[in-house]
Every structure is written in structure tokens, then in C-alpha cells.
């Protein structure tokens, strides 16, 4: 399937305001050709607006959108080398599956009819919807509709395929299966995929690179592993995976203290320690960084999750290997972790 | 998506023409009722007078007609709301056997030509209830046929837009079915009820095609009185009483619209406050 | 909730009594519909004007009425007016609904909606009278439109005015059910503005267009006051002849004409239902 397009996307200093509300505050982002890129963030962070700006359905106040080296900032949606998969699918209810998919091939009249037909068949086979070609959207399930929506966008062989929360309307089991298929379709077509999602596990499973967005800015962009292990901000640390966040570091004789635990010396507004980095030791153990009272313990199969409360009332989550502790609710234990496991944010520079 | 200026201009002209077309016959009636001339010859009023309005209010058939129409409209509205609201409630919230059929039965009168309905009620009254002919009750009873579809549809839409779980919550908290209806459901649909009531009242007040079959020519509702007078001749008194109807209708419509808008704004204002 | 209730009692009361709430309305409609079917037909198969409930069946009125060319010319006028008025009205209403829907300023859209819909609340008699004033000789437009009053063009003009809101309403509702995403998706798939309209918006609003046509047509063929006032006796529709025959005490003939009007309405309704099924079959 070498006929599929693939372009890089370069977004420079894009801003967007709705009325008095600043939705995007100077976004710059590079998306590599043929990569799977996710825009991840909570609702209202501006990720969908950014995607719609790439599609040409929304216009930035300032800034430049370059696709494949060409400035497309002012190109109308129907003349862009991009195609969008809507959150709802937005399949035309009056057309059959095949006519929906063929829609974008008929609009520019550049594709001969015979070729259009074979391309529709080919793409429907790719998304395993070939046998539903003559059905109407209303008779399809949610997952099938989303497959057709993706086929309808892909059949135009866009340089960049844009996906707006494509899986959020599906149930969890289906989401997990569709993630693997999305990844496979991206690899088979080689097209650049840009996918908006609020689900961090979805982003981590799908993407080569993730841009974490918050309040209209990109907080950090990088691989899933980078984001997990080297979060650049307190927001990224708390949004990607679980984290124990501690505030207000106060200097002491030896090192510093925050929330009733002792930390290695150093300046920071807040600190983060992953639950799996925490060990439980006897309360009087010399390695203990502070006491914690066990609130609850639960067994999840792969691990035991223990929630504790420090002497200042801060709740701390520890994720331990099964059998690593015998602590019961009500026990008081010592909380321990390696210096290297501590990540610091703010004031550090 | 941006629009071309030429298209914008075309749109503006079109909307302007439609506005003129829609308002012209109403404006001309208003003008005729305040211009001293017997026959309105120009759209620029040549003076101002209230004599036609006072003459209209002195004219016996109109005076009788206003009271007659108001009585009919009030009675018909009350009956339509009393019959329609429970029906809409039952269709929306309970399992009624044959609900689909019943729904279309309640809308069916809309397709019945009003003159045919008028003839039928006329036949019904002369055959079975000669005393109902020409009475407020008889006319109102017939009007209910025209109002019922609107009441059932509007109240039904209101009920569809409100959450049935609220009523169940009220029941769970110890309210009787009646208490739950009056304290929880009714407040939720008070705007649809207001709209249905106002619309019913004005529809009944304005009705001609059906009413004209049900009353003798000497004592009639206001629109029928106007119609019968127009069949003989036109004079500014008719314009005057028509103006009163136009102004009253539009004021009532505007007030209702504002009331609904305020209720709507108040509701969205609250959700905005609690949102993120 | 005052203490324990006996189980037997509870079970009995669970039988949803709320369903009975439809009964009063249904009883009323049954009376009305029975009056329509039974009395109307019974009156039409009489010869004498009589108000007795049961009269001997006699089809003479039917045979004379159906043999009368005047009746058929009235039916022709009625249907012709219905067709012309519904076409003109819908041709105005369709772009009007789109214009209102795409207005950017909220207050302007609200004002336009008020302009379009508020005439529904003004009596048909008053509105027809307004047209009389506008069109009559010596009136503001009397010189230009003198020949319209008391002729078909005047009747058509006033009827279009009366029915316009009824045409805008179903079209506007069908436009409002189309999510903005459909237009966006079409644009994203390369469709120009004209293509977006022709291939997506028009097919999706076709059901609204059809119900507007149907509504205006049925309302127009049964209109009474407007043709009576603006036709000036020269344009006669079925509804007028029914009224006139009652005035002339020819009740059986009026009943025959009422039955014909009712049948015409039913035929139109079923025709439109068939077409709607044909066109909109797969949409939902």
C-alpha cells in the first residue's frame, strides 16, 4: 500500500481565542511524517481546537500550519491534504457505507469511477467492513461506524489523517481491540496519524510521540517512556500514570521535609514519587523516611496496592509486589524510597 | 466557514422582502385604524385619531364578540389543558396499551379540515343537543378538537425533555404520586404548559372556519363578527377592532416569549455556574 | 408512608392506574370522530333538510352533486389553489428557514423568528382584511394590484401569507436535526459549498420539505375565510360552498361536499406518506 501519503506537520506559534477565552496560547509542535502522534490532555485543554485548525475547520488567530513543507494556514478544509475522523463518526445517514466512503472520491472528480470503486473496496477490506458495503449507517454498531468513518477519511489517501477521540464512544473491550487495529492501519498505510484523546493509556499504547496539553499549551512532547520516566512538569507527572505528589518542601537538619516525610536536600515547589518506587519497612527502621498508617490494602493480581496516611494527613499510594508486605489496615509502618526515584518540579532551575 | 459579501447582501435583501411581506397586511390594518380618512390611500398616515377605536368599542356585535370570544377561548383552553395534560403525561411516563396508535389519534384532528369539523359539530348539535348551538359551551367544546393536538404535543415535548428519574426520586423520598406530580413534574413543565395555554387561548379566540357553523349571525364571536361585517362592507371600525386583536396577540406572544426566554436563561445560568 | 401496608393491597394498587389518564381525552376524540364519520355520512345520504338522528338512506343528493359540473369546477379551483400556494410557499420558506438558521447574531435570529411565526397568532380574518386594504382600488397598492383583489392572484397572495409559518416550521426543524459535523465532514472530504448543499443538506432536509408541502397543501384546500374575503365570490373553493349550502339550508349537499373535502385531504395525506416513505426510507 505504497500509494498512501505521509507528510510532516509543523505548527508554529498558533493562537486561538473564542470571545474572551484564550483556547490556544501560542502552540508550536513538530509532527514527523509517517508517525503516530497523540494530542493528550484533559477536556477543555484545546486539543480538539488544535486538530480542527489542522483540518482547516477552524482558523488560528495567529501562527502558521505547515503540512509537508507547504503553508496551509489559510487553505479551506476541502482543499487540504488532511482528512478528519469525527468523534461521532459523522457518517451521512442518507448514504450507504460504500457511498459514504466514496463521497470524498467523487467530490474532486479526479478519480475515475472504476478506480474509485476498487479503492473503496480495498479500504473497506482493510477495516474489515467489506461485507457491510450496502448497509446504512443506522444499522451499524458503534465500532462498525467508527471503522467506516476511518475508511472514509483514509480512502482519500490524505498526507495526514486526523482523529478526534475516535474510540471514546466505544465500550472498553472494543476500545482495547480498536487501539491495536488503529496502530496496524497506521503502520500498513504509512500515513501520518494525529489522534486527539483524553485517555493516557490510549495515548501510550497508540503513539510514537505524545504531546501533553494543558490549558492551551503543550506541557511536554515525547515518547510514552520519556513522559513516564522524565515528566517535565508537575501536571505531566500527575496526568501520565499514577504519582504521589508532595508539596511545600521545608529545610531541616538533614535534608528537607514535606508532608511528614524526609527528602534529599534540594529546591523544589513539588516532588513526585511513583507508587511502585515506594517500599514499606518497619516503623522504627533506620531507612524509614517517616511513619505512615495503613488505611486500606487491596490485591489486584499483579500487585498489592496499599494506601497510607502520613503524620501530616497526606495520603500516599504504594504499589508493591504480592507478598512484599503483610501490613494490615491500622498498622503503622515506615515509608521508604530511593533518592533517585524522586522527581522535582518548579524552583529547581 | 466564511461567506461571500454578495451572498450576504442577497440574504439581507431576501430577509427584508420577507419581513415586508409578512408585516405589510398587519401594518396597513394598524394604519387604517388611526388615520382619519375613511379609506386608506397611502402608507403615510395623514393624521391621528382614536375615533375609530371608540366607535368599534361602541359597536354592539364587536362588544358582544369580544366577551363571547374571551369566554369561549378561556373555557376551551381550560378543557384542552385538563384533557391534554393527563393524556400527554400518561403517554410519556406510563405504559399505555396502544400508545403509538393513541399518539396519532391525538394528532389526527390537525389534518381534519376545520370546515368539515364545523359542519360535523353543527350536525351533532342540531341532531342531539339543540341547546348547545350558539352557546359558549358548545363552541368551546368544538374548539377543544383544534387545541388538543397542540396541548398534547407541547406538553409531551416538555415531559420528554424533563428527567423521569426526578419524579421517581420524589416517590423514593416519600411523596405520593400526586405530590410527586404537583411538586416535581409540574414545575418542570410549567413553560410548555404556559406556551400551550397561551397558544390555545389565541387559537380559539381567533377561530373562524369552525366557529361560523356553530352560531347564529346575530350573536357571534369577534372574528366571526368581523368576517360577517367584511362580507358587507369595509370601514375603519373594522380596522380598529382588528388592530386591537393584532396588538393584543403580539403583546401576549412577546410577553410569553420573554417569560420563556427568562426561564431558559435562568436555567443555563445555573449550569454555567456549576460547570468547570 | 404510614406504617406497613398489606401485601395484597400493594399488589392491587401496582396496576398502573396512571394509564387511565388518557381516557378523558380519548372519550372526547371518540365523540368528535364519531360525529365526523357517522353524522357526516348520514347527513350526506339524505335528501330533506332534517335534524333527526336517523333518516332513510337516499343517494339522490350524491348523484346530483357528482353530476353537477359546478362542483367539479369548485374542486378544480380548490386543488389548483392548493398546488400553487403550497409550491410558492415552500419556495419562499425553504431559503427563509436556512437564512434564519444561519444568522450569526442571536437577537437578530430571534427577531426574525418572531416576524415569521407571530402572524400565526393573528386571526386569519384580520390578515385577509389587511390584504384587502392593501389591494383594493384607491388603496396603497390598488393601482398596481387592482386586478388582483377578488381574483385568484389576490387569494393566492393572502394564502401564501397565511400558510408561510406552517411551511417554515417543519423545514426549520429538519434543518436543526442536522449536526454541524455533517457539513464539516463533507468539507473535509473535499466537497465545495455547492456540493455540500446538494449532496448532504438537501437530501437530509427533504423530509422536512415534504411535510411542509403536505401541511400547506392540506391547510390550503380547507381554507375558508381567506378565499371568501379575497375571492369576492368570483373565486369559489369547496369550503365556501359547504358554508353557503348550510346558509341555504341544503344540509345534505353541504355534507356531500364536506365528505369530498375530507376524502381529498385523506388522499393527499396518504400520497405524501407514500412519497416520504419512498424518499426517506433509509435515512432513519
Automatic annotation (TrEMBL), chain A:
Entries under SUPFAM superfamilies matching the protein: MOP-like, P-loop containing nucleoside triphosphate hydrolases
Domain ABC transporter: from-to ranges: 9-240
* GO MF entries: ATP binding
Q: Which Gene3D superfamilies match?
A: P-loop containing nucleotide triphosphate hydrolases
Keywords from UniProt, A to Z, are: ATP-binding, Nucleotide-binding, Transport
The transmembrane segments are none
User: Which InterPro entries does this one have?
Assistant: AAA+_ATPase (IPR003593), ABC_SmlMolc_Importer (IPR050093), ABC_transporter-like_ATP-bd (IPR003439), ABC_transporter-like_CS (IPR017871), Mo/tungstate-bd_C_term_dom (IPR008995), P-loop_NTPase (IPR027417), Transp-assoc_OB_typ2 (IPR013611)
Its domain of life reads Bacteria
Q: Which SMART domains match?
A: AAA
Question: Which PANTHER family is this protein grouped with?
Answer: SPERMIDINE/PUTRESCINE IMPORT ATP-BINDING PROTEIN POTA (PTHR42781), SPERMIDINE_PUTRESCINE IMPORT ATP-BINDING PROTEIN POTA (PTHR42781:SF4)
Q: What is this protein called?
A: ABC transporter ATP-binding protein
TrEMBL record, chain B:
Main localisation: membrane
Q: Which residues cross the membrane?
A: 12-34, 66-92, 104-128, 140-161, 193-217, 237-260
Sequence ranges assigned to domain ABC transmembrane type-1 in this UniProt record? 66-256
**Membrane topology designation:** Multi-pass membrane protein
Subcellular location per UniProt equals: Cell inner membrane; Cell membrane
Q: Is the Transmembrane keyword given for this protein?
A: yes
Give the source's domain of life in one word: Bacteria
Question: Which keywords label this protein?
Answer: Cell inner membrane, Cell membrane, Membrane, Transmembrane, Transmembrane helix, Transport
Record's InterPro entries? MetI-like, MetI-like_sf
Q: Which CDD domains match?
A: TM_PBP2
By sequence similarity, the record places it as follows: Belongs to the binding-protein-dependent transport system permease family.
For this entry, the protein name equals ABC transporter permease
Top-level taxonomy: Bacteria, Bacillati, Actinomycetota, Actinomycetes, Kineosporiales
Automatic annotation (TrEMBL), chain C:
Tell me where it resides. Cell membrane
Where would I find the ABC transmembrane type-1 domain in this sequence? 75-272
Q: Which InterPro entries match?
A: MetI-like, MetI-like_sf
Main localization of the protein described in the UniProt heading: membrane
The record gives the membrane topology as: Multi-pass membrane protein
Keyword Nucleotide-binding assigned to the entry: answer is: no
Signal sequence residues: none
Family annotation (SUPFAM superfamilies): MetI-like (SSF161098)
A single Pfam family it belongs to is BPD_transp_1
| Keywords, ordered alphabetically | Cell membrane, Membrane, Transmembrane, Transmembrane helix, Transport
The keyword Nucleotide-binding appears for this protein: no
- Sequence intervals crossing the membrane: 20-43, 79-100, 107-129, 149-172, 206-230, 250-275
Q: So what family is this one in?
A: Belongs to the binding-protein-dependent transport system permease family. CysTW subfamily.
Q: What is this protein called?
A: ABC transporter permease
| Organism taxonomic ancestry | Bacteria, Bacillati, Actinomycetota, Actinomycetes, Kineosporiales
Amino acid at each position: 500500500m505504497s500509494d498512501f501519503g505521509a507528510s510532516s506537520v509543523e505548527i508554529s506559534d498558533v493562537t486561538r481565542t473564542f470571545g474572551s477565552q484564550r483556547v490556544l496560547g501560542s502552540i508550536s509542535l513538530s509532527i514527523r511524517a509517517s508517525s503516530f502522534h497523540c494530542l493528550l490532555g484533559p477536556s477543555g485543554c484545546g486539543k480538539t481546537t488544535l486538530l480542527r485548525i489542522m483540518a482547516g475547520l477552524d482558523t488560528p488567530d495567529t501562527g502558521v500550519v505547515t503540512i509537508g513543507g507547504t503553508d496551509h494556514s489559510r487553505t479551506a478544509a476541502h482543499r487540504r491534504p488532511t482528512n478528519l475522523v469525527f468523534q461521532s463518526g459523522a457518517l451521512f445517514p442518507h448514504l450507504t457505507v460504500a457511498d459514504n466512503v466514496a463521497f470524498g472520491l467523487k467530490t474532486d472528480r479526479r478519480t475515475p469511477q472504476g478506480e474509485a470503486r476498487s479503492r473503496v473496496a480495498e479500504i473497506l477490506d482493510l477495516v474489515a467492513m467489506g461485507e457491510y458495503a450496502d448497509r446504512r449507517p443506522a444499522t451499524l454498531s458503534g465500532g462498525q461506524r467508527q471503522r467506516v468513518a476511518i475508511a472514509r477519511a483514509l480512502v482519500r489517501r490524505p498526507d495526514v489523517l486526523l482523529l478526534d477521540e475516535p474510540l471514546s464512544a466505544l465500550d472498553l473491550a472494543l476500545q482495547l481491540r480498536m487501539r491495536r487495529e488503529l496502530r496496524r492501519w497506521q503502520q500498513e498505510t504509512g500515513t501520518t496519524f494525529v489522534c486527539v484523546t483524553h485517555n493516557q493509556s490510549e495515548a501510550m499504547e497508540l503513539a510514537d510521540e505524545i504531546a501533553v496539553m494543558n490549558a492551551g499549551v503543550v506541557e511536554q512532547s515525547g515518547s510514552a517512556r520519556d513522559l513516564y520516566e522524565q515528566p517535565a512538569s508537575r501536571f505531566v507527572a500527575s496526568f501520565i500514570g499514577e504519582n504521589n505528589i508532595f508539596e511545600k518542601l521545608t529545610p531541616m537538619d538533614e535534608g528537607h521535609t514535606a508532608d511528614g516525610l524526609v527528602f534529599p536536600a534540594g529546591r523544589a515547589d513539588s516532588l513526585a514519587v511513583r507508587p511502585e518506587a515506594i517500599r514499606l519497612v518497619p516503623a522504627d527502621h533506620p531507612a524509614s523516611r517517616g511513619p505512615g498508617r495503613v488505611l486500606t490494602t487491596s490485591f489486584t493480581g499483579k500487585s498489592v496496592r496499599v494506601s497510607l496516611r502520613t503524620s501530616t494527613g497526606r495520603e500516599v499510594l504504594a504499589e508493591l509486589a504480592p507478598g512484599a508486605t503483610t501490613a494490615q489496615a491500622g498498622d503503622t509502618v515506615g515509608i521508604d524510597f530511593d533518592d533517585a526515584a524522586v522527581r522535582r518540579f518548579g524552583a529547581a532551575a | 466557514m466564511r461567506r461571500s459579501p454578495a451572498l450576504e447582501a442577497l440574504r439581507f435583501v431576501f430577509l427584508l422582502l420577507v419581513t415586508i411581506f409578512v408585516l405589510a397586511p398587519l401594518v396597513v390594518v394598524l394604519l387604517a385604524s388611526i388615520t382619519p380618512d375613511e379609506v386608506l390611500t397611502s402608507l403615510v398616515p395623514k393624521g391621528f385619531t382614536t375615533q375609530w377605536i371608540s366607535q368599534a368599542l361602541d359597536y354592539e356585535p364587536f362588544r358582544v364578540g369580544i366577551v363571547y370570544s374571551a369566554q369561549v377561548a378561556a373555557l376551551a383552553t381550560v378543557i384542552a389543558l385538563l384533557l391534554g395534560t393527563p393524556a400527554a403525561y400518561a403517554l410519556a411516563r406510563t405504559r399505555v396499551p396502544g400508545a403509538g396508535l393513541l399518539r396519532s389519534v391525538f394528532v389526527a384532528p390537525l389534518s381534519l379540515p376545520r370546515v368539515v369539523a364545523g359542519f360535523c359539530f353543527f350536525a351533532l348539535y342540531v341532531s342531539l343537543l339543540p341547546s348547545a348551538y350558539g352557546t359558549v359551551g358548545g363552541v368551546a367544546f368544538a374548539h377543544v378538537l383544534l387545541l388538543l393536538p397542540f396541548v398534547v404535543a407541547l406538553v409531551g415535548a416538555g415531559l420528554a425533555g424533563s428527567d423521569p428519574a426526578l419524579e421517581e426520586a420524589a416517590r423514593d423520598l416519600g411523596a405520593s404520586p400526586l405530590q410527586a406530580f404537583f411538586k416535581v413534574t409540574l414545575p418542570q413543565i410549567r413553560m410548555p404548559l404556559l406556551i400551550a395555554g397561551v397558544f390555545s387561548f389565541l387559537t380559539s379566540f381567533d377561530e373562524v372556519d369552525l366557529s361560523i357553523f356553530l352560531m347564529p349571525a346575530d350573536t357571534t364571536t369577534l372574528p366571526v363578527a368581523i368576517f360577517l361585517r367584511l362580507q358587507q362592507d369595509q370601514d375603519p371600525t373594522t380596522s380598529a377592532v382588528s388592530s386591537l386583536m393584532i396588538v393584543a396577540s403580539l403583546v401576549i406572544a412577546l410577553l410569553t416569549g420573554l417569560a420563556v426566554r427568562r426561564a431558559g436563561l435562568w436555567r443555563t445560568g445555573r449550569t454555567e455556574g456549576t460547570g468547570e | 408512608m404510614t406504617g406497613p401496608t398489606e401485601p395484597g393491597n400493594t399488589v392491587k394498587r401496582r396496576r398502573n392506574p396512571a394509564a387511565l389518564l388518557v381516557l378523558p381525552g380519548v372519550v372526547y376524540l371518540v365523540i368528535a370522530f364519531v360525529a365526523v364519520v357517522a353524522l357526516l355520512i348520514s347527513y350526506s345520504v339524505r335528501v330533506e333538510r332534517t335534524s333527526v338522528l336517523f333518516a332513510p338512506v337516499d343517494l339522490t343528493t350524491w348523484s346530483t352533486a357528482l353530476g353537477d359540473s359546478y362542483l367539479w369546477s369548485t374542486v378544480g379551483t380548490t386543488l389548483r389553489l392548493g398546488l400553487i400556494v403550497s409550491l410558492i410557499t415552500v419556495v419562499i420558506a425553504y431559503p427563509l428557514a436556512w437564512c434564519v438558521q444561519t444568522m450569526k447574531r442571536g437577537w437578530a435570529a430571534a427577531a426574525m423568528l418572531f416576524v415569521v411565526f407571530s402572524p400565526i397568532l393573528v386571526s386569519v380574518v384580520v390578515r385577509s382584511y389587511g390584504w384587502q386594504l392593501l389591494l383594493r382600488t384607491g388603496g396603497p397598492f390598488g393601482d398596481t394590484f387592482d386586478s388582483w383583489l377578488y381574483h385568484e392572484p389576490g387569494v393566492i397572495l393572502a394564502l401564501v401569507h397565511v400558510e408561510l409559518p406552517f411551511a417554515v416550521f417543519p423545514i426549520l426543524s429538519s434543518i436543526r436535526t442536522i449536526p454541524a459535523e455533517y457539513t464539516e465532514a463533507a468539507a473535509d472530504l473535499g466537497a465545495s459549498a455547492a456540493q455540500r448543499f446538494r449532496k448532504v443538506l438537501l437530501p437530509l432536509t427533504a423530509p422536512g420539505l415534504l411535510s411542509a408541502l403536505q401541511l400547506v397543501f392540506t391547510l390550503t384546500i380547507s381554507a375558508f375565510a381567506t378565499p371568501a374575503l379575497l375571492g369576492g365570490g368570483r373565486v369559489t373553493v369547496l369550503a365556501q360552498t359547504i358554508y353557503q349550502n348550510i346558509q341555504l339550508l341544503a344540509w345534505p349537499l353541504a355534507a356531500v361536499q364536506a365528505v369530498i373535502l375530507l376524502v381529498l385531504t385523506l388522499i393527499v395525506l396518504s400520497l405524501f406518506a407514500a412519497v416520504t416513505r419512498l424518499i426517506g426510507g433509509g435515512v432513519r
